[in-house]
Amino acid sequence: MWIEVCKADEIDEEDVLRFDHEDRTFAVYRTDKDEYYATDGYCTHEKFHLSNGLVMGSTIECPKHNGRFDVMTGQAKRAPVCVDLKTYPVKVENGTVYIEL
Amino acid sequence: MSRLAAQKKRRDYSILGPENQLAQQKGLVAAEWYTSPIPRQRMKELMKRKNGPAIRDTIIWVAALGITGTLAYYSWGTWWAILAFAVYGVLYSSPGDSRWHECGHGTAFKTPWMNEAVYQIASVMSLRPATPWRWSHTRHHTDTIIVGRDPEIIAPRPPIWRLIMMDFFRLYIGPRDVKRMIMHCFGVIHPEEKEYIPASEHRKTCWESRAYVLIFAIVIGACFYTGSILPAMFIGLPSLYGAFMVLLFGMTQHLGLKEDVLDHRLNSRTIYMNPIFRFLYWNMNYHSEHHMFPMVPYHALPALHKEMKPDCPEARKGLWAALSEVFGALIKQGKDPSYTVVKPLPATARPYYYGPGTVASDNTAAAGKG
Fold this sequence. Notes:
A: mainly beta; four-stranded antiparallel sheet; 11 strands; globular; B: globular; Fatty_acid_desaturase (chain B); transmembrane helix (chain B); transmembrane (chain B); Fatty acid desaturase family protein (chain B); membrane (chain B)
């Protein structure tokens, strides 16, 4: 099911937005190439929200321990993260970002 | 309270002891910490990575080591060697420690391989097995100064002066880490390390230690070959004889401040330092700032300090002012282990967040004493 997240321009280029839905939380990204991606909101290392982190290209760095993930694949790229992040399909239609859950 | 009674009252600081479980029960483990309000746009500017400052500082560092090392070499056999090696030792050990730290966070350089290369070299220079200390420091940031959880608490309350004195020349931590590295060569990970290093990193730990031990073995071999201690005076021993500034800087970070709280303004100390100390220490004098926002690179910490200033206690005026506060607190803790320094906040600040582990009355007596 596709769920509306926000307007596309609410996320800056190379930035991330927190999106809470029911009892779950997600991080929705806009990369330097103007592409949108979504992952689980919390880092897989410890429960810190990635939306406070730094997006560099298509990489998100966790704000607490500087672990890194590729937001396109969820792949863990730098310690202390060892477990990949779950990703979700995203689409942009008529200027609105949707995530499929 | 007598000193003997105070010592008997000392908590168990081991991360393998009962305090670990107690901290979890209190809700102090991997908890949500206080953060000062800074607009997202400004944070993004502050977090921005650059290669320039760290490349510049690394060139200066290597050049300074080259110059002082050359002077030390040619003064060997004269009294001037003492001064030359003292300077070389500080330049080897202190930036070795701060570069290890900042590159471990991955924030010093923008380019990941540069962080990793300097991290590995600086780990050798500070006698640290690279992967265990990466994970130890990760824990230090998750559970900063939480007793039973943080493996990087320099001194318990009351302090053990013998260990502090030994570490002026890294004689407590140094041999401990060398022994652990030797054990890693045989595939043995210390139980304390197993507490914070995931099993998937054990293999890497062992291989790194084998490489480091090989480097130290080559230096020792060179000493035997040349019939002189000189090679070790350049690689290996400076980690010990040059370590006193590492300890002096390190002691100012958290000692004398609160334990078991969830607000870095209460357990970390920010100090104004001169440019030379800030170069050696890579701006870690902005320690509350670093702990609250570890993604901000060292070169942006002065700017972050300006943003956080209205929300933080006043920074200490210098290294000696901070050390005098620290030693004063440690001496008082000898008789009263509950003594801590709590600095007043400015009117613009949000109140301190003690978290679930500390009752308000615990702070009343200490408040304002510092």
